[in-house]
Amino acid sequence: DPFSTKGRPNLFLQTVARVATSQAHTIGATFELYYTMRTTDDECYRLIRDINERNVGGVVFATRPIGFEGTPLLKAAKVPKVAIMTKQVYPGVSVIDFNSHSFIDKAIDALLERNRRRIAVFLVPGYGGDYLEYLRNSLAAKGVELPPQWTLTVSLDTPWAAVNVAHLLMSATPDDRPDGILVTDDNMTEHI
User: How do residues 7-39 score in pLDDT, each as one tens digit?
Assistant: First the structure.
């Protein structure tokens, strides 16, 4: 499945493909999907050929184009290129950035609307630092404390571990356990 990561469905990639195809259809355009993660696979060669033959109006990378540095794919000046990533690190590739602050604010508001005041957070590696600081500050601004033991990181390599962590969280007495969980990556939700 091209929309999988390490054999598991990747909900983000599935959504990007579905929305892009739908939007292209709405405006009467064609949206060709290329499934390539390596510069040596047939899909990458097909994409480069289509760029060279001017059959492609632009390239949208669903994630950072890791591994394509210095390749004809990124060097091709014939088409505009954008990537869904947080900052500009690839010359000639524009950035489409997620507004993670908006996600955090809306997720917190949704939980508070449901009268959830004891909120745990499931993160994936890489969602610490500024992301976690903003999340903590946003919760604090709304009068919600995030105890350190309720800030949990679970790898997408072992998402099933989230089940055990959730069981552990909920094994506490009602006053000592969360009444809401904010999950920062939709690929983890089926396991919680």
Answer: 566 777 777 778 888 888 888 887 787 777 677
For residue 151, which of 130, 175, 182, 176 has the smallest C-alpha distance?
A: 182
| Single-letter amino acid code for the residue at 108 | I
Write the DSSP assignment of 43-101 as a string of letters: HHHHHHHHHHTT--S-EEESS--TT-TTSHHHH-TTS-EEEESSS--STTEEEE---HH
Output the CA angle 25-55-78, nearest 5 degrees.
115
**pTM as predicted:** 0.65
Residue 4: CB atoms within 10 Å: 11
How far apart CA 25 and CA 43 sit, in angstroms, is 22
Please state, in angstroms and rounded to a whole number, the distance separating the CA atoms of residues 155 and 191: 12
Collect all residues with Cβ–Cβ distance below 8 Å to 19 and sequence separation of at least 6.
Answer: none
